[in-house]
Amino acid sequence: MGQDFRKKTFRGAKIEDIILELEKLSSLCEEKSKSSDQLERQRFYEGMAIAYTTIEVKLKGDFDYIEPKVIDELYNAIEKTSNPNSINNTEHVATCSFCRRSKEEVGELAMGPGVSICIECLEFGAEVIKSNSSEG
Asked: Cα–Cα distance between 54 and 73 in angstroms, integer?
């Protein structure tokens, strides 16, 4: 597959064609993830879909760079959902799931299954929802 594959695929290819191909690959991976009955395969295809989408968005110029912290957060989210026994759905989290500040820093947290939210993030979310609903 080496150099011949690379020459045929990328030399002279239009960026638009590459973006379309990445969109197809992402969709294919999403379909395979949904149709797979094995958790490991589901997570593999989900990760590939994220990777293809990230490259696609980068090529479109929707953002200039990716913060390493974003990749870490994606990994952490996948890690939590990859092992169904890693979080008990009734387990409460002692930090805000959005801003990552501790209960000691923000005060009381609204707790849900495996997630928590502080009052500041809750109010911000409410503002976002309110502003989006008044635009339409």
From this structure: 14
